[in-house]
UniProtKB/TrEMBL annotation:
Residues 121-268 form the EngC GTPase domain. Keywords: Cytoplasm, GTP-binding, Hydrolase, Metal-binding, Nucleotide-binding, Ribosome biogenesis, RNA-binding, rRNA-binding, Zinc. Its main location: cytoplasm. The lineage of its organism: Archaea, Methanobacteriati, Methanobacteriota, Stenosarchaea group, Methanomicrobia. CDD domains: YjeQ_EngC. Residues 1-17 have a biased composition (Basic and acidic residues). Gene3D superfamilies: P-loop containing nucleotide triphosphate hydrolases, Probable gtpase engc, domain 3. It is found in: Cytoplasm. Residues 115-270 form the CP-type G domain. It comes from the Archaea. It is an enzyme of class 3 (hydrolase). Pfam families: RsgA_GTPase. It comes from Methanococcoides methylutens. Residues 1-21 are annotated as: Disordered. This is Small ribosomal subunit biogenesis GTPase RsgA.
Length: 367
């Protein structure tokens, strides 16, 4: 491949250069260099039905999705880096392509609809927020870990309301037991204790998001950490010529220290999709033990000489964690099947998205 020379990072304020787009890097620069002509790059800050709010160097504009993209079902989501056709003569912008996504947060769609829904793209770190008390549910955490691992983003577990814990250390220990190598951080969004530990994850040009159940303190944390006036700090110069004024709530925020924060209801209410790969990473203890099962494709149900079931019997893995694993595998297999049926309906020849693990699991269990 013809390698483009790496361009030097210019001043952040240079409105003519895509480096002023939050999160822009050399890889994107290289992908974008394939577009010659009146194209500019931007990042999706919010999605609406037919248009998106796009951050371009020095301004925020609205752009429609090209007919060609709509026909093939290519839908930009918040966080995407996109290529815009700059039609100065029409005072408008059109999104003509999406630059390669580094991470992709998706959920299994509810009801009968078959396709996985991408909610946000290019998030580097996802804070999984949980809280001391009845909200601290390890099984639910495993579910969130699976979702984040599947997205490609880096998970970090925040145990909020630590001020309510009788024995904070024990709470953290319990959480660490299911976390693998994922960092576990105790915080109190209310008293702002422990928030400094989050700073390293919000480096310049990193994109972060948070997920967690209702009531764990996500809003309190956003206000405590990112500031009450997040919306204000995100004020960008309006492009008078081409930009239309938008009154809708933005979903991508620029943080005062240079980081980028993405928040929308879709991220907050995320469900498990076909994430069998994420399950393997969340349950790496089970995945490791699987190598010692007699059958290579052991599903750890009834097969003889199953190292995983042995570990459960010997107390190395708790019954609750084992059940949680099976529950998530069942759901992932169900999502896979739903996706497959949907795609057959669309008469697609091949579906690569179905993960092998989930397929085997479904064949074996008949679920
Ligand atoms: N004791 C204590 N209470 C907290 C802490 N953080 C949040 N809360 C309280 O928990 C309740 C829920 O907090 P929210 O920030 O609204 O929770 P949320 O996750 O945004 O909830 P949804 O908006 O439903 O998703 C509020 O009453 C907060 O004051 C904390 O660190 N300690
Ligand atoms: Zn087994």
């Amino acid at each position: 491949m013809d390698k483009q020379p790496k361009s030097k990072k210019p001043e952040e304020s240079d409105p003519d250069h895509p480096y002023s787009i939050p999160g822009w890097d050399d890889m994107l620069e290289e992908a974008f260099s394939a577009y010659k002509g009146t194209y500019i790059a931007g990042r999706v800050a919010a999605q609406h039905k037919t248009v998106c709010d796009i951050l371009i160097p020095g301004a925020m504009v609205q752009a429609a999705i090209s007919g060609a993209m709509r026909r093939i079902g290519k839908q930009p989501v918040v966080g995407d880096f996109v290529v815009l056709l700059d039609q100065a003569e029409l005072s408008s912008y059109t999104i003509v392509d999406i630059l390669p996504r580094k991470t992709c947060l998706a959920r299994g769609s509810p009801g009968d609809s078959s396709e996985e829904q991408v909610i946000a793209a290019n998030i580097n770190t996802i804070f999984i927020v949980t809280a001391v008390g009845k909200d601290l549910n390890l099984r639910r955490l495993e579910r969130y870990l699976t979702i984040v691992h599947s997205s490609g983003a880096k998970p970090v577990i925040l145990v909020n309301k630590i001020d309510l814990a009788d024995d904070p250390e024990q709470v953290i220990e319990e959480t660490k037991e299911i976390a693998g190598d994922v960092p576990v951080i105790a915080i109190s969004a209310l008293s702002k204790d422990g928030l400094e530990a989050l700073i390293p994850y919000i480096n310049t040009d990193e994109t972060v998001a948070l997920i967690g159940s209702s009531g764990v303190g996500k809003s309190t944390l956003i206000n405590a950490f990112f500031g009450e006036d997040l919306q204000k700090t995100n004020d960008v110069r309006e492009d008078d010529d081409k930009g239309k004024h938008t009154t809708t709530v933005r979903q991508l925020f620029l943080l005062p220290n240079g980081g980028i924060f993405i928040d929308n209801p879709g991220i907050r209410e995320i469900q498990l999709g076909d994430s069998s790969e994420g399950i393997d990473r969340t349950f790496s203890d089970i995945a490791d033990l699987s190598n010692s099962c007699r059958f290579k494709d052991c599903t750890h149900h009834n097969e003889p000489h199953c190292a995983v079931r042995n570990a459960v019997q010997n107390g190395l893995i708790t019954q609750e964690r084992f059940d949680s694993y099976h529950k998530l595998m069942n759901e992932a297999a169900f999502q896979s099947e739903k996706a497959e049926i949907g795609l057959k309906r669309l008469e697609k020849k091949k579906y690569k998205g179905l993960s092998q693990t989930a397929r085997k699991y479904r064949e074996y269990t008949g679920k």
